[in-house]
Amino acid sequence: MTDRSITIFGGSGFIGRYVVQRLARRGWTIRVAVRRPDRALFLKPLGQVGQITPVMANIRDDASVGAALAGADAAVNLVGILYRQGRQTFDAVHVEGARRVARAARAAGATRLVQMSALGADPQSPSDYARSKAAGEAAVREAFPAATIVRPSIVFGPEDDFFNRFAGMARLLPALPLVGGGRTRFQPVYVGDVANAFDRILETPETAGRTYELGGPAVHSFRELMEILLRQIGRKRLLLPLPFFAASIQAGLFELLPVPPPLTRDQVRLLRQDNVVDPAVPGLSALGIEPTALAAILPTYLTRYRRAGRA
């Protein structure tokens, strides 16, 4: 191991576990800053004894963020939400939380900060989520000008929420909804490539202060992604176009439920915009990473959704 230390906020999440594993292999001493450290203990075996330590931190709290960053050489902020829930609002998490981490990282003397944003972050977006991501980027850059911003498209991998969610729906339902007719385009990126991007960024001083957009090797419409999914799990399902106005009404009803909504009105607004990288913005190739195709990874984790008796 080296004597370099890094604090990773949100390191126990889907993307976080891959970033932790990659940086542990690189030799970083890692603090995983999460609200529930007991739920991050599964990360400890990814490194050597004492290399990975879960610590309590809430990015809405100055003291805990400062304590988590004390003495750190670098920081990564992966914390994000897809919908509002109680005090976990877009502004509190994506803007003020990101600002708090950036200020504390600078105060702690950290030399590098990598902030995960999202493809489509735009101060003019009709989506609250996308606007908050853009505002978070600006807040981070104001507090820590040398911060590196990473904007991934849909991230796929064994623990992802996207393909696993729709595969689960296809196992139970006769049809899958296509919001807006399924025409929205995406550029899915493999979680392992995203983790490698964080590693390359931290190892390359020239990446400081830059923004990277991460996408896979191919662009697919939402309909095409559902067709790929159904072929992988060997199921035939009706793909039902759902106009944006109808999806918004349905999402409004979902938001009234006492459980996390499967779709929100803000997500419907977000789906009106394509989610693909800007070729003028550096991405995986600029970091020397060859993007991994969907076909190479999906079969490794979607087999459990296949119909019994199908090869």
The first-to-last residue Cα distance is 44 Å
CATH class of the domain at 5-153 and 189-216 and 276-291: Alpha Beta
User: What is the residue-averaged pLDDT?
Assistant: 95
Q: So what's the oligomer here? A: single chain
Structural class: alpha/beta
CATH architecture of the domain at 5-153 and 189-216 and 276-291: 3-Layer(aba) Sandwich
How does this structure look, described?
By secondary structure, the chain is of the alpha/beta class. It has a domain at 5-153 and 189-216 and 276-291: 3-Layer(aba) Sandwich (Rossmann fold). The protein has ten helices and 13 strands. The protein has helices spanning 14-26, 62-69, 90-108, 128-143, 162-172, 191-203, 222-233, 244-254, 265-270, 294-301; strands at 5-9, 29-34, 52-56, 74-77, 112-116, 148-152, 155-156, 175-179, 185-186, 189-190, 211-214, 220-221, 238-242. A seven-stranded parallel beta sheet has the order 3-2-1-4-5-6-11, with helices on both faces. A two-stranded parallel ribbon has the order 7-10. α1 (14-26) links the parallel β1 (5-9) and β2 (29-34). α1 crosses α6 (191-203) and α3 (90-108) runs parallel beside α4 (128-143). The chain is globular, with a radius of gyration of 19 Å. The N and C termini lie far apart (44 Å).
Give short descriptive properties of this protein.
globular, Rossmann fold, alpha/beta, 17% strand, 10 helices, seven-stranded parallel β-sheet, 38% helix, 311 residues, single chain, 13 strands, two-stranded parallel sheet
Give the helices and strands, then pairings.
Elements: E1 5-9, H1 14-26, E2 29-34, E3 52-56, H2 62-69, E4 74-77, H3 90-108, E5 112-116, H4 128-143, E6 148-152, E7 155-156, H5 162-172, E8 175-179, E9 185-186, E10 189-190, H6 191-203, E11 211-214, E12 220-221, H7 222-233, E13 238-242, H8 244-254, H9 265-270, H10 294-301
Parallel strand pairs: 1-2, 1-4, 2-3, 4-5, 5-6, 6-11, 7-10, 8-13
Antiparallel strand pairs: 9-12
